[in-house]
Amino acid sequence: MSSTTEPEKDRMPAIGDVVKTQRQSYRIIGIIGEGGYGTVFEGTDNERRVAIKAEKYTKSMLHVEVSAMKAAAKIHAEHICELIDYGTEKPYFIFVVMTLLGKDLHKLRNEQFDRRFSLSTSVRVGIQTLKAIEELHRTFFQNGKHYAARGEVGWRGTTRYGSLRAHLRLDLGRRDDLESWLYMLVEITKGSLPWRRVKERVGVQAGKQMARKAGRAQFFHNCPRQYDTILVLIDALKFEDDPKYEDLYHNLEEIRKENGIRMHSKFDWEADATSTRSTTLSMSPPSNASQHAHKEDLLKQTDADRVDTKDTVVHETKAAQ
């Protein structure tokens, strides 16, 4: 780094700093996003632009991400960032250099007038992100090895998208990734989740439990009926189960065919994209109240929204390049 005089531990790099590995030097030129323990920067090695994710030295779990990206490269994963380099600035931070992608889905969704995507974009994003999750699972389970649940563990994840098992402090597996994925899918389709404005984690947990009971209709309002089927499939999975991804794809494909959605149409955020807002054959029409709520969201975000904005850092889609 260009400056190492500060005595504090866990000091993060700043714009203009140079971070070095055994192979290369990288200059930090901008900030892409920030989270609780680290920051994702835009950087350059003077030949290409890269993403540099740095985490506090004493709290970093980047070694897990490095292992995942190395394993993903072995199976030629198409939806996981390429590992370029990694290094350490003791005792301040650990960093990993990876391919620079486009804007994350959170930012792209917030740029939409009503903070939601068309059904066409939502379903195709759902298919791509499900493929990414399946690839990630393959990197850790490619030899058929299974791991037993460890019992009670600490909280992990983002409150808004965490699975019910996460709220119960239970060990998380593949089915929990899929549950979080479905929450994301509902959010980008309808614009918000019922617990959007709830700040307390226990209240969010109650909202997710209600989505399976009396609040189920509200949870899936303005969503295709197949989303309900997907929740049933995910909730039926146990920790050690091998998810039947093909059943999830089948439901997404059913939505696509019923609504005449073409896989190669432009996404909502792409330049000159033709509006696909009329693709709502399997959805309920939005009420005046929900339209008003969408407009309110543009003018005011809650503290919970701002926290989630900071936590949503590297959920990238290759289509955003």
Describe the structure.
38% of the residues lie in helices and 13% in strands. It is of the alpha+beta class. The chain has two domains: 18-99, Phosphorylase Kinase, domain 1; 105-320, Transferase(Phosphotransferase), domain 1 (Orthogonal Bundle). It has a six-stranded antiparallel beta sheet. A hairpin with a 4-residue loop joins β3 (38-44) and β4 (49-56). The longest helix has 23 residues, at 119-141. The two termini are 29 Å apart. Residues 2-7 and 275-321 have low confidence and may be disordered.
Short descriptors:
321 residues, 11 helices, Phosphorylase Kinase, domain 1, 2 domains, 38% helix, globular, single chain, Transferase(Phosphotransferase), domain 1, alpha+beta
Given as residue ranges, the uncertain stretches (5+ residues, pLDDT < 50) are 2-7, 275-321
Q: What distance separates the N and C termini?
A: 29 Å
- Structural class, judged by helices and strands? alpha+beta
CATH class of the largest domain: Mainly Alpha
**CATH fold title of the largest domain:** Transferase(Phosphotransferase), domain 1
Give the overall shape, derived from the CA principal axes: globular
Major beta sheet, specifics? Answer: 6 strands, antiparallel
**The CATH superfamily title of the largest domain:** Transferase(Phosphotransferase) domain 1
Using only C-alpha atoms, the radius of gyration works out to: 20 Å
Mean pLDDT, all residues = 83
Number of DSSP strand runs:
6
List the total number of helices: 11
